[in-house]
Every structure is written in C-alpha cells, then in structure tokens.
Amino acid sequence: NAGVTQTPKFRILKIGQSMTLQCAQDMNHNYMYWYRQDPGMGLKLIYYSVGAGITDKGEVPNGYNVSRSTTEDFPLRLELAAPSQTSVYFCASSYNLGYEQYFGPGTRLTVT
Amino acid sequence: GQQLNQSPQSMFIQEGEDVSMNCTSSSIFNTWLWYKQDPGEGPVLLIALYKAGELTSNGRLTAQFGITRKDSFLNISASIPSDVGIYFCAGPSGGYQKVTFGIGTKLQVIP
After folding, report:
1. Residue A2 above 80 pLDDT?
2. Which of A98, A108, B58, B111 is the most buried (most CB within 10 A)?
3. CB-based contact (8 Å) between A61 and chain B?
C-alpha cells in the first residue's frame, strides 16, 4: 500500500492564480481530511469528507473547495490564491471513526 | 470550539534524559490521541487512549488519559536523537468524525 499520497510536493503561485492539490489513498478509508499547518499554529481543518459524494466544512474553509467523487481521491481546490494561503497542506484519511488518521507527506505552497 | 493547550511549547533535552509533556482541554474528552511529526513529514499516530485513567505504552513512549478527562500526558524515556520532532495531542470535536489538534510540543535532543 502506498498509503496517502499528495501531489505536488512544492508549489509557488502568484496572487490570483488557481490550483488543485491532489490527494489519494489506497486503504479504502471512508474519512478524508484536508488540514493546513502554519508555523507554531498546529493543524487547522479546512474540509473533510465521510464518504464519496459527502463533504463538509472544517474550521478554515474560506478560499477553498473540495470534491469527493470516489473513495480514493479528495482534491482541494484553491481559487484566487492569496498570500494568507501560504502554508503546508496535509491530507489525511481514516477508516472508521475520525480519530486514527493517516497523513500524507504534505504540499508546501507559497503564494507571492 | 474546543481548545487544547500543550506544554511546554518547546524543549531541549540531553540524549538519554526522560521527557514529559502534557495537554489540557477546555472540555471533557472521551478520547485522547498523541501524534508525532518528523521534520518535513506528515504526523504519525503514536498512541490512542479511550478510557479515563488508561495508561498505554508504545516502546519508550507512555501516555496517560487523565482522570478528570480534561488532560493527557506523554512521557518519553531515555531519549534518542530520532525522538526529535513535534508532538501533537488531539481529541475529538464535532462528534466522532473530526479531531482538534493542539499546537504541539517541539522536542530537540542534544547528542
């Protein structure tokens, strides 16, 4: 199993550009999550999904969108990138309850 | 929303020393989780605690679920250089689907 994979690993965006961060898991997990991690701020939940076709907002959803058309994939879309979205983004998945989460390696995004 | 306070926020220790860190919550939890994040990597689950008073070990790591259900503790014995990283506590929020993470304790080990 590859576990949770994320692409790209690094990306630099100009203000106003858009991009999609990809996340995939091969563990047949129901739950998937997107977090952002700012220095010294821990992990903040952006969006999550409890199954294909079902998504919901987390703590900091503004400026982001998600979709979950399959169990395996959970892409995160940034529209009109802003400097405040400079962060490290982690995708995670969980089989049943949302507690024991498996994280991907992260995408480091810089918006200038 | 739920808030988790971790202390200390950072610590430097000598290789071979024992380490203690804790996490407190503004509300009662029925589950506590401890994750470790190596530099440049995603967090990895170390220990999950599901019962008040529970004491669980994973190698040199021991975690306890506080009796008040508002705190948890993580101890690392005989630290080694690969213990370096950020340790996060986490607890459930919004039912069983999500967790809230603390801001982490950054551990540095001096060889």
Report:
1. yes
2. A98
3. no
Could you tell me the end-to-end alpha-carbon distance of chain A, in angstroms, rounded to an integer?
36
pLDDT single digits (tens) A51-89: 999 999 999 999 999 999 999 999 999 999 999 999 999
Mutate to test the interface with A, among B99, B100, B103 (most CBs of A within 10 A): B99
B1 pLDDT band, cuts 50/70/90, is low
Q: Is A43 on the interface with B (CB under 8 A)?
A: yes
Residue B31: closest CA among chain A residues belongs to which residue? A99
Under 8 Å CB-to-CB from A62, ≥6 apart: which residues?
A: none
